[in-house]
Amino acid sequence: MICKNCGYDNPDKVTFCQNCGKRMDGKKVCPSCGAQIEEDAKFCGFCGAGVEGKAKAEVAVATADENASAPAKHSNVQKVLSYVGLGLLAFSALMGFIFTFCIGIETDIATLGKSYMLYEYFGNAYENISTTGATVPQEILLYLPNAFGTLISAGALIANIVFFALTVSSAVKQFAYKRENTNFTKYATGTFLSFALFSMLFLALHAISATSTASSISVNGGITFNKPTLAGLVLSGIGFGGYCCCCIASNISKFKNSKVLVNGVITLILAIIAIVVLGLVSAPVIQLKYSYSSSYYTQKMECSVGYFMASALSAFSGTDEYLIKLVAFEFLGFTSQIIIACLTLKLLVKFIGSVCKGDKPEKLLGSAITNLVFSVVNIACAVLFAQELVENSTSLEGTSLGYAMPIALLVLNVLVLAGVIVYKVYSSRMPIAEETTY
After folding, report:
1. How many C-beta neighbours within 10 Å does residue 288 have?
2. Bridge-partner residues for 208, per DSSP?
3. What are the residues whose beta carbons fall under 8 Å from the beta carbon of 276, sequence distance 6 or more?
């Protein structure tokens, strides 16, 4: 039914317009004598009574009654979306939990072996280290990658087991015992995101890709996720994406407010940038290009490496001062990558909450500024580390260097900070979010 006053398309059989509150027939009833009079009449033409104030009260009461009965159908849709969304989130958490135990990488570079699982860092990785005749800085340089590998592997298993246990516990409380505020969505989201985070860090630990030619011999390869890890990321990502879509559909009425909609668009853009940042964290840090020609052969090499793979190019030899510098730069550089990944994940969770539920996230600015600071630290470590490596290795003389990943991280985190500032300025006028369905 089309409202004669504002043109809004209302459901059939409504008495008052759901948009403007006017009667659908363009009339109103005199509260004194019951006669039907024109909507804009201030006095009744039959009894002479003033009707404006009373009519407004009548409209308000009737509109409230109408709105109380109309949302029943909408409420049922919300309920269905809620259960579907929670089911998809539970699936995402389950996939994240299962595939955490399969986190690993594989490579087609023959000299690096075929694959590495996170369990390697609970024994096998240390057995392959030979420290005979090594100085203290050499031993530190040899053990540091394995120490980070152990921390990442242990962190992945502990965090995922804890989050999934809390997810199951809260699910039982919420669905079996009908308790409220069990934090099921919080813990299930934590299970999926912890799996994604530690998978990215595990890949970053081994990051390398290389293209090398020597006469007719060529090498072209790199390190990627193994198939179980990739499958886990895809399946759990689909489940989490479906949950987000159900959240948006269930809370779509919030986005009818233009301010909430604009804030949702801003945080959607920021969420996309944050996802790109998380992907970049696992990429190689330094690019090296090397070319050598002799009367016997011509060799060209292009190699992109992470901190720990780059230190292997030094053959772990050199003066103690040089090796200590390598240790310091790779420790600070990789630590900055971990911090950037964790802070970006924190921001991503807040951005997703705003996009999916129209929430107004708080405390974004501090995380964005800290992220930018560590992006600067990361690029400084990459530059200093690579220069030390090339200057002190005769086999890398004449190598040209590139820093695409840390530069890209810096640029993206500048964009995130700018976006957060724009968001905070605009969201200061945003209404307080209503409670969401789930």
Report:
1. 21
2. 305
3. 412
- The residue from 46, 69, 92 where one domain ends is 69
Are 232 and 323 in the same domain?
A: yes
Same-domain check for residues 210 and 336: yes
Residue 128 belongs to some domain of the structure: yes
Q: What is the pLDDT of residues 19-42, one digit of tens each?
A: 777 777 777 777 666 667 777 777
Q: Of the candidates 14, 42, 69, which is a domain's last residue?
A: 69
Strands (E) across 86-207 are located at 104-107, 115-117
Residue of 148, 239, 201 whose CA lies nearest to 342? 201
Domain count for the chain: 2
How much is the CA Rg of the chain, to the nearest whole Å? 31
Look at residue 113 and tell me whether its pLDDT is greater than 80. no
Kind and range of the H or E run holding 380:
helix 365-391
Q: Find where tokens 């895809």 sit.
A: 234
Residue 193 and residue 244: Cα distance in Å, rounded?
14
> Structure tokens of 180?
């409220």
Q: For 235, phi and psi rounded to 5 degrees?
A: -65, -50
Do 76 and 203 fall into the same domain? yes
Cα 438 to chain center, whole Å? 19
The predicted model scores a pTM of 0.77
Is residue 59, in this structure, part of any structural domain at all?
A: yes
Nearest CA to 246 out of 95, 59, 419, 80 is that of 80
Q: How many residues does the chain have?
A: 438
| Cα of 13 vs its chain's centroid, Å | 45
Separation of alpha carbons 357 and 345, rounded Å: 18
